[in-house]
Amino acid sequence: MSVLEESLTLKSKDVDMFRRLRTSRLFELFQEASIRHTEQLGMGREKTLDRGLLWVLLMQRAEIIRMPEYDEDICLKSWPGETMHLLFPRYYTVETAEGEILIRASALWSLVDAKSRKVIFPEKYGIRIPGESGGEKIALPGSIPKPEAEAEQIFTVPYSFVDLNGHMNNTRYFDLAEDCLGAAAEGRVLRRIETEYTNEAPFGEKLLLRWQKREDGFLLAGEGEKPVFRMRLAYDS
User: Fold this and answer.
1) Phi, psi angle pair for 147, to nearest 5°
2) 68, 74 in Cβ contact below 8 A?
3) DSSP letters along 174-194, please?
4) pLDDT per residue as tens digits for the range 180-196
5) Looking at residue 1, what is its pLDDT?
6) CA 193, CA 26: separation in Å to the nearest integer?
């Protein structure tokens, strides 16, 4: 079965001031697992990065039963779904050491040309990742509505947020969201989160952030010269 399984113990760098796994770190773990598993499946950097191709995230979703805590042993599992033309679905679970599922997640990845920044046809480059039919899947992420802005601010992408693709890394959007909305700092527990990335945000770009509080959580969006991202977050009340 083509499933990556990795065990780890959460350290101080992984958690927030409430000793729960930080949201951005959770998605870093997903990102790192995706890369390692893709390499194990024979589609590492010599097939992609060294040929001028970049893996990019288009959408993500997570459903959280309980966020793991400091010094807890967890098992992260990840596996690919069946390729959908230009899209590479991927699924994840975070479990206790005893196998209790704490988090389920899904994502849609794609490949772009590093120079043109346009999506490529993977079969043209001989890139194929066989899908795995099993596992504890949740639905793939979908489109997120635009918020009716109740608050807004300008954010400039700093150097420390930029990754090897030359744009703001997907995981830093979660830090940005939590800083804007304030719910995490109040100790409220995140239960569901979805993100949609429509354009990249390079170093130094100014984004206009707008967000809205609703009965079912928050909507947050950021725009530069073009729309960049949208996010939906739901917390315990």
Assistant:
1) -70, 150
2) yes
3) HHHHHHHH-TTTTTPPEEEEE
4) 999 999 999 999 999 99
5) 52
6) 12
Domain assignment present for 142: no
pLDDT at 41 over 90: no
> What's the pTM?
0.93
- In degrees, rounded to 5, the angle at the alpha carbon of residue 30 between the alpha carbons of residues 114 and 77 is 130
Range of the domain at 209: 151-235
- What's the pLDDT tens digit per position in 141-187? 999 999 998 899 999 999 999 998 889 999 999 999 999 999 999 99
> Within this chain, do residues 164 and 118 fall inside the same structural domain, yes or no?
no
Q: Looking at residue 167, which CATH number applies to its domain?
A: 3.10.129.10
Q: Examine the domain organization and report whether 90 and 166 are in the same domain.
A: no
**Does the residue 143 lie in any domain?**
no
Residue 181 CA to residue 219 CA, distance in Å, equals 10
The answer to whether residue 171 sits within a structural domain is yes
pLDDT of 43: 84
Query: What's the domain count of the chain?
Result: 2
Helix (H, G, I), strand (E, B) or coil at 37: helix
Task: Please enumerate in sequence order all residues whose Cβ is within 8 A of that of 41, keeping only pairs 6 or more positions apart, or say none.
Answer: 2, 80, 129, 130
Q: Has residue 69 got a pLDDT over 60?
A: yes
Instruction: Share the mean pLDDT of the chain.
Output: 93
Say if residue 8 is in the same domain as residue 111. Answer: yes
